[in-house]
Specification:
The chain has 199 residues and is α+β, with helices and mostly antiparallel strands. It contains seven helices and seven strands, in the order αβαααβββαβαββα. Strands 1-2-3-4-5-7-6 form a seven-stranded mixed β-sheet. Helix 5 links the parallel strand 4 and strand 5.
Length: 199
């Protein structure tokens, strides 16, 4: 179902969200590199983009995947998006969205929102009530639309001497949100109670 006549409205309905398995890791790496090459140059220096790309081929990348819950968005057999979450290292009630990336040809079709909702639902079911996104500079407006609020910056943990900034964005996960996309009203009073997140 890769016919280019498919509309953005139809795209989300035609996409399946499925758990990632080790057999998907090769395609996942390729998608991640494609996403960085498509958007990273607008927000990061050449050295910072090169550092991000180099991390994908490192053994630590696979180790991170094994310690995260990863969801894939597939259009038939084509991998078009991925997102992952894990428990916070510092805050027992907080989950962390560790990654989100899309195939450049399938942006603005609701796939990223569906992936984040899957991560939020899974983390809520696991007992977490706060969620923090480690957002690259390109993704900040997207997370803001979903009700996340900026909580500062942190530098990435890079295998090279080069580091690049990530925006820490946080919101409360409510029962209401897990049933609807209207997140801002659910966060109005809760966000002020959130401790600083330094993942």
């Amino acid at each position: 179902m890769t016919d280019q006549t498919v509309s953005k409205f139809d795209l989300k309905k035609l996409t399946s969200i499925v758990p990632c398995t080790p057999e998907d890791y090769s395609d996942l790496r390729a998608l991640h590199k494609m996403a960085i090459n498509a958007t990273g140059w607008h927000f990061y220096s050449l050295k910072e983009v090169a550092a991000q790309l180099s991390e994908i081929d490192q053994p630590d990348y696979t180790i991170a995947l094994l310690n995260e819950t990863v969801f894939l968005a597939k259009l038939d057999d084509l991998l078009v998006g991925a997102a992952s979450w894990r428990p916070s290292n510092d805050h027992p009630q907080t989950a962390v969205i560790a990654a989100l990336y899309l195939h450049p040809a399938f942006t603005n079709g609701g796939i990223a929102t569906a992936l984040i909702q899957e991560c939020e639902q899974a983390s809520y079911n696991a007992g977490f009530r706060w969620i923090s996104a480690l957002s690259d500079l390109n993704s900040r407006p997207f997370f803001a639309k979903l009700g996340y609020e900026a909580k500062g910056y942190r530098n990435s943990k890079c295998n090279q001497s080069i580091q690049y900034p990530l925006q820490v964005m946080t919101r409360h996960i409510s029962t209401q949100y897990c049933k609807t996309q209207n997140v801002k009203s659910a966060n109005a009073n809760a966000l002020s109670q959130m401790p600083g997140v330094n993942e």
